[in-house]
Design goal:
With 97 residues, the chain is mainly α. The chain contains two helices and no strands. Helix 1 runs antiparallel to helix 2.
Length: 97
């Protein structure tokens, strides 16, 4: 859906219409319609691509944020267990002395 493609289509159609002795006004109208369709298709595809990339970025950020929340929760849960284990180890060390 590049501009070059649509220019080629318009050129081809123009040449075919001229070969069949279609009047110049009809040839110009056909070329204008093809150009308009080309612009519209290029715009739609371009916007779709941009929207898709934006959605990928949002999904990636959401995943990272969710993953960060999960890791944070795990660390908080483990913090209590680690603290208790360190206290037990400290008591054991004091009992050994």
């Amino acid at each position: 859906a590049s501009r070059k493609f649509w220019a080629a289509v318009a050129g081809f159609v123009t040449a075919v219409l001229l070969a069949f002795n279609v009047n110049n006004l009809a040839v110009e109208q056909a070329a204008a319609i093809i150009a308009a369709v080309g612009v519209l298709v290029a715009y739609i595809l371009g916007e779709s691509y941009v929207d898709g990339k934006r959605q990928e970025e949002i999904s990636e950020k959401t995943f990272r944020n969710t993953l960060g929340d999960v890791v944070h929760d795990i660390v908080l849960d483990m913090k209590e267990e680690i603290f208790e284990a360190l206290q037990e180890q400290e008591h054991e060390n004091q009992d050994d002395h």
